[in-house]
Amino acid sequence: MIQIETIFDILVKGFIIGVVVSAPLGPVGVLCIQRTLNKGRWYGFVTGLGASLSDIAYALLTGYGMSFVSDYINKGSFYLQLLGSVMLLVFGIYTFRSNPVNSIRPASSNKGSYFHNFITAFFVTLSNPLIIFLFIGLFARFAFVQQGVLVFEEITGYFAIAAGALTWWLGITYFVNKVRTKFNLRGIWILNRVIGSIVMLVSVAGLIYTLLGESIY
């Protein structure tokens, strides 16, 4: 029987995972901002949409792979959550120290179709399989893959990841579009540092709560 509390728990976890995966300003994040500034908000959003589709594909692949070792995951959940928090901390530090401005490419004078912007972002994201390690860390940290979960609950979880990702891209394109006259290279750098700091804080909180035997939320 499906429990409301369980569904809510899955929705929250999935949404957080979707946001965390999308937020760091890597090549696609910078591309999204560039297109928002140069072509318009919706060109930026469909860029994020393409990235989200690729992220979901990797999320499904990660979840499917981890489901084969669900017994070990359940038995070693404490250590996996510790490992997940450490991986998130490393990722946060990397994000904080990285300079997304280096990913900026010369803007194209041709807007292209929405589909073209969507598909290019999809393949740019797909070309970075290292995101699987981020999903492993997040899935471990939030105990996203569990034994005995109903199919409906699994589908709900992945839809929540997609919702989190899309919410991020909607938010960032709206923000950039609103401050387009004031948004510059330094703004991209500062935004990335803020994101890295938040990820680090969440990971440290996760470490502390895991060591105390408590839930992170």
UniProtKB/TrEMBL annotation:
It is a multi-pass membrane protein. It is found in: Cell membrane. The keyword Electron transport does not apply. GO terms for cellular component: plasma membrane. It comes from the Bacteria. Its main location: membrane. Pfam families: LysE. GO terms for molecular function: amino acid transmembrane transporter activity. Keywords: Cell membrane, Membrane, Transmembrane, Transmembrane helix. The chain crosses the membrane at residues 15-33, 45-66, 78-96, 117-143, 155-176, 188-212. This is Uncharacterized protein. It comes from Bacteroides caccae CL03T12C61.
